[in-house]
Write a structure and sequence with these properties.
2 copies of one chain form a homodimer. In chain A, 35% of the residues lie in helices and 17% in strands. The first copy, chain A, has 2 domains: 6-123, Rossmann fold (3-Layer(aba) Sandwich); 137-341, P-loop containing nucleotide triphosphate hydrolases (Rossmann fold, 3-Layer(aba) Sandwich). A 7-stranded mixed β-sheet of chain A has the order 3-4-2-1-5-6-7, with helices on both faces. A 6-stranded parallel β-sheet of chain A has the order 9-10-8-11-12-13, sandwiched between helices. Chain A is globular and about 55 Å long. Chain A has helices at 21-29, 56-59, 80-91, 108-117, 157-170, 182-188, 202-215, 235-245, 274-283, 305-319, 326-329, 332-341, and strands spanning 6-9, 34-38, 46-47, 50-53, 66-69, 95-98, 121-123, 144-150, 175-178, 220-223, 249-255, 292-299, 323-324. In chain A, α1 (21-29) runs parallel beside α6, α3 runs parallel beside α4 (108-117) and α7 crosses α8 (235-245). In chain A, α10 (305-319) links the parallel β12 and β13. With 342 residues, chain A is an alpha/beta fold. The interface between A and B is large, with 51 and 51 residues.
Chain lengths: 342, 342
């Protein structure tokens, strides 16, 4: 994929279980493009067979072309220790990709340094300058559009889309993953972070993504979902993405055992029953583009093997739809359901 | 209200039936604060008793403090003829308020001129710099929050909120209109255009507005709705505003006879039956903050008197809720319904 060789910048965090989502996603789905991980606290170890190094200089023998900032920093700016690392990367001739909310391009010093060394600073969450409102072109996209939706944030909507895309391609389908957030963008090498665009343009950004996904050759487009339609903080992004991507089919993602939306203020926000979520999503489809939930992806990461199988069976029973955990048990069953429905 | 005296800039458009929404809204709801309208094509006439003048110089004897750009210009920037008018206003010492998508503050020349003349340029759609995601503070707002929702854009959600607020205040209620778009902001003198904020912050902006509305003394807050939850272009803004403003009660707005969402591309987007919209809105409430639709506001502007009464009766029959056209027949019936439900 495009000759990029990543040095993942994860100083102090590579051993953290909550280790930056973007870094983790790239390590998982672009493993072959990662040559080293920078984390001086774990230098000499390795992670998934990738060497962990102490300094940018130590990483250079592995031949990186691009440094990836994939670990959240504290506060709104890059702290001084990070600035040192970023400077060293730029001075070593590495492009820098950044998945954080704060943009490299807003830092005049880094911008000047990058110009001087002829390297690119790529802010993965920075929206294209020429976005506009949705036009209806989403409804003319040929092929089948599948969107992952969910009962909450951070339950694996991106992972499910990636796993189902991989399985579909294994079966010889012309299948494309459509990235809508920074991690998906880092993994796929294109996309728009739809939660970072001007509110009026959410559907327009989503529309542009499915048009582009189709142009890239998919007749099966797996759109990475965001948030949840009943999420107190992010539902606007969720619904704009839903309507703007104009899916034909939906895969509902849920984490087994989660009963409340996490991290939203104002007291507990209960998650409705899965069957209610299925119905609500179908009724919230555009009247011009009805959408059906065809499968349930159950995230069982917190469960033992038997409990996991029981959770999948319970989701099937409750919704009457095929369910599975595609990470744990493979994506075959969910892809079967999608292919049967298109 | 704050000593502002408006010169409304409407060159070439003041006689147009689609005459800028912001200009029309201010003329209707802040009539006493408007001293002149600039439109050289109708100089010497008057509109609602306000004199129409040919030039900025001709307007000055009426004592304006602030020029209001309330008429959409072509394309993304201010055309040359408008730039001349804006320069004259600034040179005459007038502040300038702008409700357009394009910002005055992005024009270096106007900014320099404004600094030189000590006047303010206020872009009503420009979001506050310090917005963030919703925190749950919306759920702690005392009093009753009422949101106007609708079957489409441009059917009167702002007007309904304004009329119901006026009627509630006539009855002695501590009632406040909460503006969420440029016209509402121009009318009320505060607010945030929620469709102009970063997508992640829609609910955060809405939350801030109800917190601020409450601080301003309302125990009955009328939140101006935006878009429609099934609108192919703007639904993300609509739902983020719904969840972020955390309403207890909803007033559903509809234009009699409208069967399709207007101006959305990709072929006809049918509007569902009103009863279905009532149910869908109630089910899409936050699980933590159930919301009920308590009345239907029917816009009958296109109908004769008898047809208008029939349309209101039909909406009542279909939904089982009190309905009325508050502009045509007064807001009493709808305010009764809201007060009975709180």
């Amino acid at each position: 994929m495009s000759g990029i060789k990543y040095l993942i910048l994860a100083e102090g965090f590579s051993g953290d279980p909550h280790y930056g989502k973007t870094a983790r996603g790239v390590l998982r789905y672009r493993r072959d493009d990662v040559v080293a991980i920078l984390d001086s606290t774990r230098a000499g170890e390795s992670e998934d067979g990738v060497p962990v190094v102490a300094t940018v200089a130590d990483a250079l023998p592995y031949g990186p072309t691009t440094a990836l900032v994939g670990v959240a920093t504290q506060g709104g700016r890059f702290p001084p220790a990070w600035m040192d690392i970023l400077r060293e990367c730029i001075e070593a001739g590495l492009d820098v990709e950044n998945g954080l909310h704060v943009f490299l391009a807003h830092d005049a010093e880094l911008r000047g340094l990058a110009d001087a060394h002829g390297v690119e600073l790529r802010d993965l969450r920075r929206p294209p300058a020429d976005l506009s409102t949705a036009t209806g072109a989403n409804l003319d996209v040929p092929g089948t559009i599948v969107l992952t939706v969910g009962s909450d944030c951070a339950i694996g909507k991106m992972t499910v889309a990636l796993e189902l895309d991989l399985e579909a391609r294994r079966r010889g389908e012309q299948s494309t993953f459509v990235p809508t957030g920074q991690t998906g963008i880092a993994i796929a090498g294109w996309g728009i972070a739809v939660d970072a665009v001007v509110a009026d343009f959410i559907a327009g950004a989503a529309e542009r993504l499915v048009v582009e996904g189709s142009r890239r050759g998919g007749d099966l487009l797996w759109v990475e979902g965001q948030g949840s339609i009943l999420h107190p903080v992010y539902s606007g992004v969720t619904l704009g993405l839903y309507h703007g991507s104009a899916p034909h089919l939906l895969v509902l993602c849920h984490e087994a055992g989660r009963t409340e939306i996490e991290g939203a203020g104002g007291g507990p926000h209960p998650i409705p029953p899965l069957a209610e979520l299925v119905d609500l999503h179908e009724r919230m489809a555009l009247t011009r583009r009805p959408a059906r939930v065809v499968a349930v992806a159950v995230n069982t990461r917190a469960l033992g093997e038997d409990e996991a199988r029981a959770a999948v069976a319970a989701a099937e029973l409750e919704t009457g739809l095929p369910a599975d955990d595609p990470v744990r048990f493979g994506a075959a069953r969910l892809v079967d359901a999608v292919l049967a429905a298109r």
